[in-house]
Specification:
about 190 residues; mainly beta; lipopolysaccharide transport protein A fold; 12-stranded antiparallel beta sheet; 1 helix; 12 strands; elongated
Length: about 190
Amino acid sequence: MLAAALVAGAIVGWHARRPPPSALAPAPAATQPPASVAVREAALVLRHQGEKQAEVTADRVEVSADARFAHFRGIPRATIYRDGAPVLHLRAREIVLDRRTQDFTVRGDIEILSAQGDRMLAPEARWSAARRTLTFPRGVEVKIGRHRLRAARLVVDLALEALQLEGDVDVTFTLDDSLPEPGGPP
């Protein structure tokens, strides 16, 4: 009973200290952009039907006021899973996700490593969910084992299971010593 009286007294006292509504500061102008949500040092796990699809660690995550865009900044590690096992690890400066279309753009010193140790480097990548394409519009370098590929642009079409390389394409295959000698038996 005493506690209830103290709480009621505190509420009445706090309301009595507030200035009348006319003395309150005016509401901010409607031209100011609404605030967005931001979180520092975040780890996000994405699941589909209970199965882990991706795990992203970021120095900062910002969500736009309309909740359409999520900006992940400073990504020291992101992991992509398939059938519960990690298949790709990614590092980048920024990922911008359009939550309405599920498209995203990755920017800044992108490094992608496969579970087998293959490596891809690029300054930018763009995923189109509708077209199921991943485009590297500003160049890419891929190292698969001892083989290397470079191009000014790469489009990975998941629907067609095809790669399209454009501009200054350079492919280097490193062969091992087990190949037959020219003119010798196969």
